[in-house]
Amino acid sequence: MDYISLQIEVRDPEQGDILTAELADYPFESFETEEGLLKAYIPQERLVDCKSAVDALLDRYGVRGRYIAIETQNWNALWERNFPATDVEGRLRIRAPFHEAAPAGELEVVVMPKMSFGTGHHATTWLMSRAILDLGVSGRCGLDMGSGTGVLSIVAVKCGAAHMDAVDIDDWADANCRENIAMNGVADRITPILGDVRCIAGRHYDFILANINRNILLADMSSYAATLNEGGDLVMSGFLEADVPAIVERASALGLEPVSTAARDGWMAVHVRRGGKNR
Is the whole model's pTM more than 0.70, yes or no? Predict the structure, then answer.
């Protein structure tokens, strides 16, 4: 698959975060920012349907973008050069196979990201991973919605979760998730599912992880709530601080009680719970 890198000069990190959140509504699969340049990666075939809308978005923010073709065979080298292993408070290391192994006693997840979002380097993946460490998932069944590389599902089962459904709408993510869960030796406890929120109808979960974006979270939260058991936890990220009130308001309207919020590099995570017993 051939990819395009949309490269945008940003005046400061805040503008980069805002543009990243806006572009996440389109089929961009990963983002990186370096020295005032935001790079957003998208399959060439998927850019055709959204390029005019993306150009209009950039015009609205008064920025210009350059579309640069990337040779597929160079992608893994790009990851290796730009994304170091991620440490979560000395309790968890998320790394690629080419990174150094975690120190003894530190939980480790190995992912080969390819084009999937969820390598641990992004603030939202870090926030969600830390939330899992503190959530108390042992023996519980969960859902990883918008699973990408499958990293959050892998973290959850390595923290003792009984089983995870890993749902993503993109076939590249589904294939990458299957590779990563096999590499981590947890394929017996994670079920990758290719599809959208309709795939979870009629299922029931003790906790749900959803690291997507504001618009999808608001649109699909009722489906998450319908599958969440009493006392179940819903942890969401993929949005900025300004989006928190809308996320919390929607959750409250669905009978989900606020538990906590967390922030990292301008990105936010919100934890809500469906009544029942406290954990």
Answer: yes
